[in-house]
């Protein structure tokens, strides 16, 4: 029913709350002031300020992964949206649901071509599954409900609702109540028998992604592996994986192309549940882009938007694995305590030892962290989040979202110094919201991954100017000063003993902390 005294922004907030969207990561401007005002007097919405839009969109990504429902973002016109595109790209690749509220000029103002006028729909489309501009105050509530439905479409989608400022300030808003959310698509039942027949030994692979990586689903996959003798792997980058002692461990398809080719070469048949057939991150001269062996039989039982839990349960029954004890259950044997100067092996061991029970690890370690997965498999039970889109600057914002979604769980953020500089403003939001996040900065003073890529693309003996473009040492970044200036306690460490002590303090205290690890 229309409330003649309710404006469009108020109907929007009421509708979001009615449909479970009660967190807003925001960086507003003039055209969004009525939305800001509505947040002030309508109870129920937690509003979290980010100092750069990429922090807001990345936080929404991390929030969805842990909460299982979307947050909203509030972005200022086309330029504000553009600042958030990188992490919207990452969120889209991760299958995260996000409801973007993007302010627009009043309809009467657009024709004047004011300085901030832009093609917002055109900017939004490449990183959105659903884009819509509200046409009148009377439809804002309905538009918002449709946006949430779109965001909740499995596995999760990016919905971008553009709100002209006159539709926000005009009276006549019509809030919508709770609407039905879409169910996941069915898996391909016609492929079930073929999938069960394909998994018949060590030359076959069950490749998992998405919600197939929950604790319960990994246990089912472990039963299938134990019964059939097939191998288990996940995609290289996973939105969320449950790991640690007592759970079924599966490795990841390696990132380095030569190693990935070697790992995948034995498999004649591959069954996909929630995963894509493995491909390289980039094209390289004289190397294949498709990582599976030539002639491999690849069968998709369930795509990422399907009911992956039902697909795994059906495959377990079809293979006769329902009563089989799962394979690959991890014991609780932690690595030995390392000492001395920090190297990548000792770093992995210390992280494994430090991960708290039920912790959340947000991983953007890029070069330094490639060995972390096997080293941490026996850590205490935890959740691991990867960057699925490859655009750096994801780690600290996603950690914010994870911490907001799960305030009772400790968050450990692993990131390189180059990656962290993209969204360094995240530290301020962590401090303001008093979030339980411990950030590890791997300070190798370079874009180290790109030094390796020079060789991969065939560049031999790069000269000093090329190396200079990949270096972060003139001047060196001082993470302790930067962190403290934004309200986050920080230390710098070079040896294992100091890192162990800093991790213990960071993960036991309340609020955020940062550890710069000089490599």
Roughly how many Å is the radius of gyration? 24 Å
**Helix fraction bin:** 25-40%
Number of domains: 3
Superfamily (CATH H level) name of the largest domain: Thiamin diphosphate (ThDP)-binding fold, Pyr/PP domains
CATH class call of the largest domain: Alpha Beta
In which order are the strands of the major sheet placed? Answer: 9-14-13-15-16-18-17
Fill in the CATH topology of the largest domain. Rossmann fold
CATH architecture of the largest domain: 3-Layer(aba) Sandwich
Cα end-to-end separation: 62 Å
Strand content: 15-25%
- Annotation, overall tally of beta strands: 18
In DSSP terms (H or I, runs of 4 or more residues), the helix count works out at 22
Mean pLDDT: 93
Quick recap of the structure?
By secondary structure, this protein is α/β, with parallel strands linked by helices. It has helices at residues 8-18, 33-41, 53-67, 77-83, 85-94, 107-110, 120-124, 140-151, 165-169, 192-198, 215-228, 257-264, 308-318, 344-354, 372-375, 395-405, 417-420, 426-433, 448-456, 464-468, 479-485, 496-508, and strands at residues 23-27, 46-49, 71-75, 98-104, 130-133, 158-164, 204-208, 231-234, 241-243, 251-252, 269-273, 297-302, 359-364, 382-386, 411-416, 437-443, 489-493, 513-518. It has 22 helices and 18 strands.
């Amino acid at each position: 029913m229309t409330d003649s005294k309710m404006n469009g922004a108020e109907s929007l907030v009421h509708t979001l709350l009615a449909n479970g969207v009660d967190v807003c990561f925001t960086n507003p401007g003039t055209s969004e002031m009525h939305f800001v005002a509505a947040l002030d007097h309508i109870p129920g919405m937690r509003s979290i300020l980010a100092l750069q839009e990429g922090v807001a969109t990345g936080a929404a990504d991390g929030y969805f992964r842990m909460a299982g429902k979307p947050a909203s973002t509030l972005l200022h016109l086309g330029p504000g949206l553009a600042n958030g595109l990188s992490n919207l790209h990452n969120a889209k690749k991760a299958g995260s649901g996000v409801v973007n509220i993007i302010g627009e000029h009043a309809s009467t103002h657009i024709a004047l071509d004011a300085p901030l006028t832009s093609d917002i729909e055109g900017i939004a489309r490449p990183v959105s599954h659903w884009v819509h501009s509200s046409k009148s105050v009377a439809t804002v509530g309905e538009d918002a409900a449709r946006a949430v439905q779109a965001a909740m479409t499995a596995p999760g989608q990016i919905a971008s609702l553009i709100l002209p400022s006159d539709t926000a300030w005009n009276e006549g808003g019509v809030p919508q109540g709770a609407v039905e959310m879409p169910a996941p698509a069915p898996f391909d039942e016609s492929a079930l028998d073929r999938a069960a027949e394909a998994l018949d030994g060590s030359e076959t692979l069950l490749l998992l992604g998405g919600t197939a990586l929950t604790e319960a689903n990994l246990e089912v996959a472990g039963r299938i592996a134990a019964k059939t003798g097939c191998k288990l792997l996940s995609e290289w980058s996973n939105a969320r994986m449950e790991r640690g002692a007592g759970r079924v461990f599966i490795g990841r398809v390696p990132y380095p192309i030569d190693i990935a080719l070697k790992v995948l070469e034995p498999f004649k048949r591959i069954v996909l549940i929630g995963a894509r057939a493995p491909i390289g991150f980039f094209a390289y001269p004289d190397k294949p882009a498709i990582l599976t062996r030539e002639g491999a039989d690849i069968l998709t039982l369930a795509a990422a938007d399907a009911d992956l839990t039902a697909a795994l349960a059906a495959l377990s029954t079809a293979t006769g694995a329902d009563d089989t004890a799962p394979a690959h259950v991890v014991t609780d044997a932690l690595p030995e305590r390392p000492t001395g100067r920090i190297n990548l092996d000792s770093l992995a061991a210390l992280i494994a030892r430090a991960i708290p029970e039920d912790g959340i690890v947000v991983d953007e370690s890029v070069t330094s962290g490639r060995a972390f997965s096997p080293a941490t498999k026996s850590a205490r039970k935890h959740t691991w989040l990867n960057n699925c889109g490859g655009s750096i600057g994801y780690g600290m914002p996603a950690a914010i979202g994870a911490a907001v979604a799960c305030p009772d769980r400790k968050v450990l953020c692993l990131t390189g110094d180059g990656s962290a500089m993209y969204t360094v403003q995240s530290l301020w939001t962590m401090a303001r919201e008093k979030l339980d996040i411990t950030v590890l900065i791997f300070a190798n003073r370079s874009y180290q991954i790109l030094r390796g890529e020079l060789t991969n693309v065939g560049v031999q003996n790069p000269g000093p100017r090329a190396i200079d473009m990949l270096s972060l040492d003139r001047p060196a970044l001082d993470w302790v000063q930067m962190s403290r200036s934004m309200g986050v306690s920080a230390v710098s460490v070079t040896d294992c003993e100091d890192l162990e002590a800093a991790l213990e303090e960071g993960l036991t205290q309340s609020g955020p902390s940062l550890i710069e690890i000089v490599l």
